[in-house]
Amino acid sequence: MSKVFVITGPSGVGKGTLISELLQRLPDLELSISATTRQPREGEVDGRDYHFLAPEEFDRRVEAGDFLEFATYSGNRYGTLRSEARRRLAAGRSVVLEIEVQGARQVRAAMRESVQVFIAPPEPGLLRRRLESRGTDSAAAIDARLEVAEQELAAQDEFPHRVVNDDLGRAADELEGIVRTELGLPLHSGAE
Q1: DSSP annotation of 122
Q2: Cα separation, 14 vs 98, whole angstroms
Q3: DSSP string, 24-76
Q4: Pairing of β 161-164 and β 76-81
Q5: Residue 175: CB partners within 8 Å, gap ≥ 6?
Q6: H or E stretch including 79?
Q7: Burial, 69: exposed, middle or buried (Cβ in 10 Å; 0-12, 13-18, 19+)?
Q8: Cα–Cα dist 60/45, whole Å
Q9: Other C-beta atoms within 10 Å of 184: how many?
């Protein structure tokens, strides 16, 4: 049975790294490609990393009901196209959504059967260091992301699954264990 796995948490917590590890361990999972109005970062490719949309096109698609969820985050709009999830689920594939808390709430309302996992930092100060080490955002953008992160951290109790990303291997094992349990797969020897 295919499922939608929502992986959420504040910017800089390591969602993308954990999801990459999860996809290597469970290659039958597929990552949904989000749409965004932000400009591509160096090396990002349209249709592989994101569907990069002009703000007018994003708005048109919101009005048409094309999004499962959408949110404004740090001045840009992000969303999951319904077609991204439907196509994969119809093919019997489970799909992973890497989205912010605002979007996770919308998916929860639209798809109560979705599996929601919150990725938390071991301590909030780590987020600033991770965001600064990326080198992709200005100081003002980092401050804006951290302001949102504070609100998101306060919401973590809304999520039935919580993984603290204090050690990549341990956190990946825990995330893999959640997914395997939800899919009825045997637990891997490294998974808890």
Answers
A1: S
A2: 11
A3: HH-TT-EEPPPEESSPPPTT--BTTTBEE--HHHHHHHHHTT-EEEEEEETTE
A4: unpaired
A5: 7, 18, 21, 22, 117, 119, 163
A6: strand 76-81
A7: buried
A8: 22
A9: 8
pTM: 0.84
Cα radius of gyration (the chain):
16
Q: What is d(CA 145, CA 12) in angstroms, rounded to the nearest whole number?
A: 9
Closest CA to 185 of 7, 27, 12: 27
Q: What amino acid is encoded at 169 in this protein?
A: G
Q: How confident is the model at residue 192 (pLDDT cuts 50, 70, 90)?
A: very low
Highest mean pLDDT among 39-43, 112-116, 119-123: 112-116
- Secondary structure element (H or E) that encloses residue 78, with its range: strand 76-81
Q: What is the pLDDT of residue 64?
A: 97
Q: Would you say how long the chain is, in residues?
A: 192
pLDDT for res 123: 79
Whose structure tokens read 């796995």? 5
